[in-house]
Amino acid sequence: MDNEKLILGRINGVYGVKGWVKIYSHTDPVGNILSYQPWWVKRQGQWVEMKVIESHAPQGGKAIVAHLESVNSREQARELMGSDIAVMREQLPDDEDGFYWTDLIGCQVENSQGLLLGEVIELVETGAHDVLRVKGDMQILIPFVWDVYVLDVDLDKRLIKVDWQPEEVEQD
Questions:
Q1: Residue range(s) defining the domain that contains residue 41
Q2: pTM for the model
């Protein structure tokens, strides 16, 4: 598992004309993505190692801009639009809970009755609790609260067990 890449963000825009890109960061705080070098950028289906030459992380918001090695024009930056940014797991400090939020993306979610609810597509921060966004037959939101809604996380099986009942949709 130590060789695997963990997605920490995505290139979601171009900035200026000299090859800078806009970054959407999944880290908290958002500027932490700049702490990890090198980045692995998924370019045309292949992971490519890239170094950040220079960057700016403005206060507040999720807007980060970066200049990546060997990307020197707006056209080259545009080719990276939509590319995931990952780092190798061993670049991250050990987490006391045994996993990072990014580990949960793609896990299947099953309730305590064995009903498959879908796959985790995103984690959403709210004021009270982080929330799993699960996509199956319908999209549902499940508060990530241990021993209340989240019963178990098994990363080897890529399975999260929850105490959650999908709402029945009434047909007229």
A1: 5-91
A2: 0.63
Q: What's the total number of domains in the chain?
A: 2
Residue 35's φ and ψ, nearest 5 degrees, are -75, -15
Q: pLDDT per residue over 50-101, tens digit each?
A: 999 999 876 655 579 999 999 999 999 999 999 999 998 788 776 666 677 7
Cis geometry, peptide bond prior to residue 58 (ω within 30 degrees of 0): no
Q: Are residues 44 and 80 in the same domain?
A: yes
Specify whether the CB–CB gap between 34 and 90 falls below 8 A: no
Judge contact between 55 and 66, C-beta under 8 A. yes
Domain's final residue, options 91, 115, 147: 91
In a domain, 171, yes or no: no
Residues with Cβ < 8 Å from 18, sequence gap 6 or more?
67, 72, 73, 74
